[in-house]
């Protein structure tokens, strides 16, 4: 297949967007958002729908012990594992219609375009619905892909409990989605993994671009801090004789912000956030004696996160000393920076170029692609989020942007399949695919065709 | 009675301290603290004890509709209302053995000294146990004295509910303490009100003084603030595109502290505290979209509190503007500065001088004396709190300090009774009281006699 042919194949924007909303029949909320928690009845229904839908386009299905569903369409060389396109159909309890869903629907659309055009890809093609990416009902997040990648065991995954003490394993069993396949990259391998996802941030919206290549995922570290001062009466305790734990916490919040917004670290994309705070005893006239905060540090570079941590520890210690506070500062989670596969990135880059989507981003959030990247070549595409809003019923990506993401994925996928073909010349039997009715397209055309939606 | 005789009368330090702990039999906790919430079974038992105890020293009792108990010992001129000494026997749920209790016990000790020495005071003497000063179970605080002073109605008082929806009126009824007396300064008057209380702050401990005159009570204002930003993903939202409500709140906490610790306002005793904070959605990777804080402002001067409020509003608005936040800033409670009665202060001053207690403070906390001061001459004495700790099982006042406070009260009370006698020369029948076995004493002696306790 030539590069011209890659560009000539087009996704159907109307269909992409209709499929998003079709999949939202189960778990939609009156405010236009979604509440489809892992392994509930709505999750069962959308899984059944996913299987039926992908069956229409020539797929057979593998379901693993974690309920991850692999819809596989054969290629020319079926001795190879499939090239996969995956994301998740579970949502936050007050989530939107695009987070995860867009990625699965983009995979379905690529499958449909390939199928309708009677293309026999070189490697098999898989579309994956990963279980419990959100972790909203069964923490932690990215659990299905994490078990598959060997980061967690299946036993661990099954033993996760929701707020009512119900186990994920039991719920998957109840809805009929504990598959016979082992959840493992070794016994159920894929050749590579593409993921389309909404950006969940404001950069593309600000840049007025529909989609972008994601070069990798930020380095992230989470910390739990406890600041202990001395409870005392707000009225009878002079300002200079206090050990005010909440004042200390406030100074730390301001200091973390200062560190992440200053100098080279800031220029290189540092982020420091405190979003969780619990103060005791929460009495208006008793100075806070104990405050717990969580610190979230990020950067595209592992060494920068290490440096932000060092500066925070130094600054926070100084604040504690000055205000007579005791500080406990514990690292509770670390995720190293991920750099996606160079070849797959190049496929995405070339495909994006055809749509004018030349921006390259680093993902600030974790995705199933983080775990798959530990085991197989992986790449991601981000689609613009209106106002950067996500995990919210107001989450929105325009129809033309959803189509652009799917189109960028299609071009990248076809290029990568071709790359695999080139890598395996001996096993190639046909040098060209059958492509029916190639139609010229561009992002501008897609936009124009979708303004009525 | 001459001034020499005032000084010759002495409280019994061992008895003062034994009585404190005797009264703590009901509601004491294993950690040495107290948990005696208003109108519970322990509160009933300590009320019964208070009545039995004061009956031994010649008192009859009036119980009003709010359960306030007035133990009255007749004087020479029983056409006058009694000079009262009052405080409260209810405690915080994790309170100590001195807050309130010391004040009531000091009153009992004065009563005992007067009684044992066969003194017939000029005006009747009353010891009062005010209901629900803490407001811990039935907010608001200082409720019994507040109803008596006409700040609240009895209906309002009875209708207060605890966390289980139980009404104070019903609970008082259950323990047999809805009295027949109207709760009113008009129908059940007192002539004046003395209150001994622990300082609940570190000033006396720092100054190494056992007790002090309280000149008045600070001006206080409470505010509820809501800061609204925009929830967004901590990883995918650049630092310069955030409206972080918790960062805004942190900057406000720091700014309020700066205002109260700077320049003239600080020199004149300003205090600004934020001790209550609630942030949403409390997810480690979602920037806080809404934060609620309570602000507590104080100063000995009403005009300074007004100025601190102005500066806070100005500073907080600037922070909100800079960070794209919406600010709601509402005053929820105001208590004007109280200046205690000059004559009563002079009585306390002279009594303190005999013990070397010459410090004069402004109370940072509210007490029953705040409400009584609205209706009758009122004065207070503070007793040293070890490390300034209060509302905590670790709350502690040394035996010799408790005795010093009671001694200072005794001298002040006798002086004021004498002042009333001078004011009413026509009705005086005897010009001297019978004083049995006057014994010289001083604070140093009290200290020496108590070091074994």
UniProtKB/TrEMBL annotation, chains A, B:
<dbReference type="Pfam" id="PF01546">
    <property type="entry name" value="Peptidase_M20"/>
</dbReference>
<dbReference type="InterPro" id="IPR011650">
    <property type="entry name" value="Peptidase_M20_dimer"/>
</dbReference>
<keyword id="KW-0378">Hydrolase</keyword>
<dbReference type="InterPro" id="IPR036264">
    <property type="entry name" value="Bact_exopeptidase_dim_dom"/>
</dbReference>
<dbReference type="GO" id="GO:0016813">
    <property type="term" value="F:hydrolase activity, acting on carbon-nitrogen (but not peptide) bonds, in linear amidines"/>
</dbReference>
<comment type="similarity">
    <text>Belongs to the peptidase M20A family.</text>
</comment>
<dbReference type="InterPro" id="IPR002933">
    <property type="entry name" value="Peptidase_M20"/>
</dbReference>
<feature type="domain" description="Peptidase M20 dimerisation">
    <location>
        <begin position="219"/>
        <end position="314"/>
    </location>
</feature>
<dbReference type="InterPro" id="IPR010158">
    <property type="entry name" value="Amidase_Cbmase"/>
</dbReference>
<dbReference type="Pfam" id="PF07687">
    <property type="entry name" value="M20_dimer"/>
</dbReference>
<protein>
    <submittedName>
        <fullName>N-carbamoyl-L-amino-acid hydrolase</fullName>
    </submittedName>
</protein>
């Amino acid at each position: 297949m030539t590069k011209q042919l890659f560009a000539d194949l087009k996704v159907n924007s109307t269909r992409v967007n209709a499929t998003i909303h079709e999949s939202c029949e189960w778990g939609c909320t009156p405010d236009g958002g979604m509440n489809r928690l892992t392994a509930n009845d709505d999750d069962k229904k959308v899984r059944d729908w996913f299987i039926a839908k992908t069956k229409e386009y020539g797929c057979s299905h593998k379901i693993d012990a974690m309920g991850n569903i692999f819809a596989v369409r054969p290629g020319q060389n079926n001795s190879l594992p499939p090239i996969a396109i995956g994301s998740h159909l579970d949502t936050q309890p007050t989530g939107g219609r695009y987070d995860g869903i867009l990625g699965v629907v983009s995979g379905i659309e690529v499958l449909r375009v390939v199928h309708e055009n009677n293309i026999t890809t070189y490697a098999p093609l898989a579309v994956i619905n990963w279980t419990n990416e959100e972790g909203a009902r069964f923490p932690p997040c990215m659990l299905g892909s994490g078990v598959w990648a060997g980061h967690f065991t299946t036993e661990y995954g099954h033993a996760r409990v929701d707020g009512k003490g119900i186990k994920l394993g039991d719920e998957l069993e109840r809805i009929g989605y504990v598959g016979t396949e082992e959840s493992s990259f070794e016994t159920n391998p894929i050749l590579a993994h593409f993921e389309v996802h909404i950006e969940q941030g404001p950069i593309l919206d600000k840049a007025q671009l529909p989609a972008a290549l994601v070069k990798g995922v930020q380095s992230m570290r989470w910390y739990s801090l406890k600041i202990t001062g001395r409870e005392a009466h707000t009225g009878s305790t002079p300002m200079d004789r206090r050990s005010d734990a909440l004042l200390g916490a406030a100074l730390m919040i301001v200091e973390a912000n200062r560190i992440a917004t200053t100098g080279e670290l800031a220029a290189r994309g540092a982020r420091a956030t405190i979003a969780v705070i619990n103060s005791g005893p929460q009495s208006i006239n008793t100075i806070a004696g104990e405050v717990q905060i969580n610190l979230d540090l990020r950067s595209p570079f592992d060494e920068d996160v290490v440096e932000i941590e060092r500066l925070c520890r130094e600054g926070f210690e100084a604040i504690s000393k000055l205000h007579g506070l005791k500080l406990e500062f514990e690292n509770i989670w670390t995720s190293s920076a991920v750099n996606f596969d160079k070849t797959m990135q190049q496929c995405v880059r070339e495909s994006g170029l055809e749509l004018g989507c030349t921006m390259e981003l680093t993902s600030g959030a974790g995705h199933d692609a983080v775990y798959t990247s530990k085991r197989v070549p992986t790449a991601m595409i981000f689609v613009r989020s209106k106002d950067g809003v996500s995990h919210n019923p107001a989450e929105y990506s325009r129809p033309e942007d959803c189509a652009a993401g799917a189109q960028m994925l299609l071009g990248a996928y076809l290029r990568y399949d071709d790359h695999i073909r080139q890598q395996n010349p001996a096993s190639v039997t046909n040098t060209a695919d059958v492509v029916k009715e190639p139609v010229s397209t561009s992002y501008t055309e897609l936009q124009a065709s979708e303004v009525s939606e």
